[in-house]
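Input.
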Amino acid sequence: QVQLVESGGGLVQSGGSLRLSCAASGIIFGLYAMGWYRQAPGKQRELVARITSVGSTNYADSVKGRFTISRDNAKITVYLQMNSLKPEDTAGYYCNFQFLVSNKEYWGQGTQVTVSS
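Output.
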């Protein structure tokens, strides 16, 4: 089992910044990826950004150049720095952990990000 503890999120004005953190604990070994997904009301959950334990990253096109994902392997923590936030970034943001061999994955409880115009 892997447990995920998220922090960050909140209300910010358009153009502002927020940082999300997600710390994983449990039996963790081998290759894995951690990332953030988001889900707005009435929409499907979508990938925002993801980083593997060896540093490979991928981003949704809508956040490229504005969001940066980083990791601290020693702490098994991933960070999402969100800059130049837009109202369309408003959503529940969910941390995801996935073992890359078994594909078994775990989800955090979610944190709300609201960007006012």
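The longest strand covers residues 18-26.
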